[in-house]
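[User]
Protein folding is very new to me. Any chance you could explain this protein sequence and its structure tokens? I have pasted everything here:
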Amino acid sequence: MLDQATPQSAKLKCPAKELLVTFDSGRLVVDQGHADEEFDISGVCTTSLAVISARFDLKTFVRLGCRRLYLIPADSTEAAENLSLKFAPFKDWPETDGPIYKTRSCESATVFEDDEGSGYRFGIRPAWRVEAPSQIDPRLLGSPKLLPTGQRDALLKQMQMQAQRQKNPVAGLLVDIDVYVNRPPRPDIAKFLGEALEKCNKLVSDFSRSA
């Protein structure tokens, strides 16, 4: 997405909402980072597309897409890799009558479904930040009460890990979903984003139940 934009891209930022609008001669991308609260970007997308389309007299659109990232948190790179091994491959998920393509390895998997120019791509892989530990001290994986010494210290470290995992995880299983429509006649951004979000939530819900 953003990394595919050319160096000549123009950028507009809204730090308060973690929003970044990037556009060049080939694409328009509206991206929202991890904000404290979810923000409906359909209005921003609609306005941005209308302004740029009018300015450059754009009438034909090649692709309309909505990409969302979800993270199943973990405490270390090893835990993230274990999550990926647990969830991939997809086995018999998803159940569909349409054309579907799957790729998978020991730690990642991708489902691609396309039906007459519209569809989705669903992928999972382990991910982590640079500061993520490679492993967790085995003493922190069980109940501190069972330790012969250092029970209080172990309990405090467990509470710190839990708080980190809930608020700002350093590692986890990344779920990457891209819902798209090829060559839309007249894009209705609000409608498309609403349907795409509903599709993303359903895919994540169904996948979690099937794993």
Remarks:
- The radius of gyration is 21 Å.
- The mean pLDDT is 79.
- The beta strands are 10-14, 19-23, 28-32, 63-74, 100-104, 109-115, 118-128, 171-182.
